[in-house]
Amino acid sequence: MSKEPLQIYGATAQQSFSTAPRGEQDPYQYQVGFGNNPGVLPVGQNMPQKNKYDLYTEGMTGASFVAPRAENLNAWLYRIRPSVAHQGFSKLPENPDLESNFLPLNPKVHVSPTQLAWHPFHLPGDNEEVDFVDGIKTIAGNGDPTLHEGLAVHMYLANSSMGRKAFCNADGDMLILPQQGRLDIQTEFGKLMVRPGELAVIQRGMKFKVKLPDGPSRGYIQEIFGSHYTLPELGPLGGHGLANPRDFESPLASFELDQAHWDIVYKVCGELHSCSQEHTPFDVVAWHGNYVPYKYDMAKFVFVGSISKDHIDPSIFCVLTANERWDVGDGTFRPPYYHRNSSTEFIGMIYGEYGGRSDGFKPGGASYENGFCPHGVSYEKFQSATECELKPERIHKNTLVFMFESSMSFTITDWAMKKSGQLHKHNPAMWDNLKGHFLNHLEEVEETLKRAGLPGLSSLGLSEKLA
Ligand SMILES: [Fe+2]
What we know:
CATH class of the largest domain: Mainly Beta
Number of domains: 3
Binding site for homogentisate: 354, 375
Cofactor: Fe cation
Structural class: mainly beta
Domain Homogentisate 1,2-dioxygenase N-terminal: 30-298
Distance between the termini: 92 Å
InterPro entries: HgmA_C, HgmA_N, Homogentis_dOase, RmlC-like_jellyroll, RmlC_Cupin_sf
Organism: Rhodocollybia butyracea
Bound molecules: fe (ii) ion
Helix content: under 10%
Strand order of the largest sheet: 2-3-18-23-15-12-17-10-9-29-7
Number of helices: 4
CATH topology of the largest domain: Jelly Rolls
Shape: elongated
């Protein structure tokens, strides 16, 4: 028996503040803030001898017990049955497209110094039903969850809602970016409706299921094994800017009474295991804590950029980049400079168009650049950027592109290299026109060297060029 879920506030109703439902596209209410402490059920303690309505207390931590206060994460759940009420685990068949070990010792992953890119990944066909969990395809990553170090980049390519099935990832936090179709995510903490342009974070160990209200759906997932997402420091920016804490939304407690058969799929060290239970896992009547799932609308991001000269590193768009910005720098080369950074870059697009690339970069596709792999704009783009008039202009209008950036190199999976069918290698010919124009100035250089009393170019064996 499944009843319309009830939404209730903690008994003391100590809400920070909540948002009103936004109509059909997003019918849920949220409480706002990053890592705040919303409504509380028991007063003055977490585990009274007996809870109101005979609920069970279940605690959950997201950090070691003795982690510094600022990093200490935990939640208290007051639920109809505790999570331990299940019927034991059994190992599920391997999903060959799901990868967790990115160490080069693993023969199923590949190293690529070459820039790679993928056309939009295909959604499953009408002849198969693929839900969010079964539709996860790993592209790249580094480290391994058993080392508590590294990350994985996945796509989800799904066409059906999860039924009486929930997913619990014990390996890492999942940052989910829908690109096509909303995700109706039911978590133990309540519900999140996440549309393209928003991001959601479901942290390690939290049970959730995903329904697809808009049919076939595609999006990006970044899974991090060793830590949790935090907001970047603001340094000289002061007290606010970039992503403001008040714009992060967490669910209100929401429970069901369903007492039917449920399967809970756990991902542990990259393996899938399942347990079953005769009741819904979504039976949390109230909760409080700061270890909670949340979502964020990237259009709320407050941009910071150079207003005088020179391109600033993309870290100013952390967390996360949003849909348009102004280029106003004077006397400067506005596109990204040619670079070889220690960062490994994985880029995807939610919507819009992205100029300056020759490789058909489209929403639902991706590109990859390993650390220290040199890259930058084509000669045509270079030439126009060095000669154009520098009027203030709005760029990337109605476009949302994101970058997963890591100081660790990624390896690329078999699925991404071979099975997806969407890989196209970057054509290095796009830089063939980047001629050494310096060579047209040799006479001038020779003059300058002479004037400075320095040896001329003939000392470099270039006299024939000067003839
Ligand atoms: Fe780059």
